[in-house]
Design goal:
By secondary structure, the protein is α+β, with helices and mostly antiparallel strands. Among the domains are: 78 residues, conserved putative lor/sdh protein from methanococcus maripaludis s2 fold; 102 residues, Elongation Factor Tu (Ef-tu), domain 3, CATH 2.40.30.170; 76 residues, Helix Hairpins (Orthogonal Bundle), CATH 1.10.287.470. It is built from 5 helices and 21 strands. α1 runs antiparallel to α5. It is elongated, with a radius of gyration of 45 Å. 19% of the residues are buried.
Length: 413
């Protein structure tokens, strides 16, 4: 026989109070939702074909529409730099001035050589004319007349050569003014006034890039390209507008829409992809060469697209997708489906379902295939009230008061 001490009674009372509090706070188990006759309830959607523009998001790099590396075509000393780095220039604007003194002197020398050749030509032409007249009356030999005619041709050739040399020196003098070959934005300068540059040197003096419009080069796999062509040929997909949207590095969408220009005719052997080029207007120069971007291309338009919420599609042990439908007798049936791609929170289904099918989105685990079910319209989870969270919050608020009551009861006993 065990002796009960005065301390046993408060402990027992406290245990009983705690058990009652826990029972009050706990939720009673709820039975599965069923219909009026014990039939499981499922949430369903009815398949309705809709017009869908198919898009593909591809990674790419921004490239200038035109790019020109400015290099000197003559050697000399840079006297001036006539542009501000990072500014916009027009075609023909002066960028650098090379010391023209030596080239101006060469031009003067070539001009003097031409003048000398012109003067010699006058004398030789007169002599050849006189010898021709004298040869006609047999006053000179025919050999002398032929020599005079040949001397005339030689003098004429010397004049032509002097003209070509003069033109070359004039071009070289013009090359002392290094101008921009295109309109665009000029980058940093690699030389300063006083630097010695050489003709056709490896390093460019500056680079000019045209930024408006600007290109975005993206790559697409040949597998996706062939599938797109087959869909277009079969008529299931209509050609798109070739418009392209651009998603920038920070996730923002570029305000201007672009247009697809061309697809490369060569496949990269290392990646198995082809290059696509899109052109975008860039009036504010927001897009800069070398930036990473994602281009959203409109491949085409699917006139009879079938979309189902993603929770409606499961996968079997082999990884094949399937869905449950409610047939005309109100029974649950399993269908094997083919999904092409995800469109937001839905799957694009190409096979296994048809217009008018009643597809189960939620509650399919409550019944077996062939069992009758009660269908109700599907409501997304985001629209359902969060009652369990509110109840949990209320229980958390009452817990301190229940603990205080328990301590008071224990003290009384």
């Amino acid at each position: 026989m065990r002796l009960r001490t005065p301390f046993h009674r408060p402990v027992a009372v406290l245990a009983a109070v705690l058990a009652l509090a826990l029972a009050a706070c706990g939720d009673a188990p709820q039975p599965p939702a069923t219909g009026g006759q014990g039939v499981p309830q499922v949430s369903v959607v009815t398949m309705q074909p809709q017009r869908l523009a198919l898009t593909t998001e591809l990674p790419g790099r921004i490239a200038p529409a035109l790019i020109a590396e400015v290099r000197p075509q003559i050697s000399g000393l840079v006297l001036q730099r006539r542009f501000k780095e990072g500014s916009d220039v027009k075609a023909g604007d002066l960028l650098y001035q090379i010391d023209p003194a030596i080239y101006r002197a060469s031009l003067d020398s070539a001009q003097a050589t031409l003048d000398k050749a012109d003067a010699n030509l006058v004398t030789v032409r007169l002599k050849a004319g006189r010898f021709k007249e004298l040869a006609a009356i047999k006053a000179v030999s025919q050999q002398d007349a032929d020599d005079a005619a040949a001397a005339l041709q030689q003098a004429q050739a010397e004049v032509n050569a002097a003209k070509a040399a003069l033109q070359t020196q004039r071009i070289n003098l013009d090359y002392t003014r290094i101008t921009s070959p295109i309109s665009g934005r000029v980058g940093r300068s690699t030389v300063t006034p006083g630097a010695l540059v050489t003709a056709n040197q490896a390093s460019a003096l500056a680079t000019v890039q045209q930024l408006d419009p600007i290109y975005v080069d993206v790559t697409q796999s040949t597998t996706a390209l062939l599938a797109l062509k087959r869909s277009l040929d079969a008529g299931t997909l209509k050609g798109g507008t070739a418009k392209v949207r651009l998603v920038l590095e920070d996730g923002s969408v570029y305000t201007q829409s672009g247009k697809l220009q061309f697809s490369d005719v060569t496949v990269d052997q290392s990646t198995g992809a082809v290059t696509l080029r899109a052109e975008f207007p860039n009036p504010r120069a927001d897009l800069l060469p070398g930036m990473y971007a994602r281009a959203v291309l409109e491949e085409g338009v699917l006139e009879q697209a079938l979309l189902v919420p993603q929770p409606a599609v499961g996968r079997d042990t082999a990884g094949k997708p399937y869905a449950y439908v409610v047939d005309a007798e109100g029974k649950l049936q399993q269908r094997t489906v083919t999904t092409d791609r995800a469109v937001g929170d839905q799957w694009l289904v190409s096979d296994g379902l048809k217009a008018g099918d009643v597809v189960v989105v939620e509650g399919q685990q409550k019944a077996r295939p062939g069992q009758p079910v009660q269908a109700q319209p599907y409501a997304p989870s985001a629209q359902k009230p969060a009652a369990p969270q509110k109840m949990a919050a209320a229980d958390a608020a009452q817990a301190p008061r229940a603990a205080a009551a328990n301590r008071s009861a224990a003290a009384t006993h």
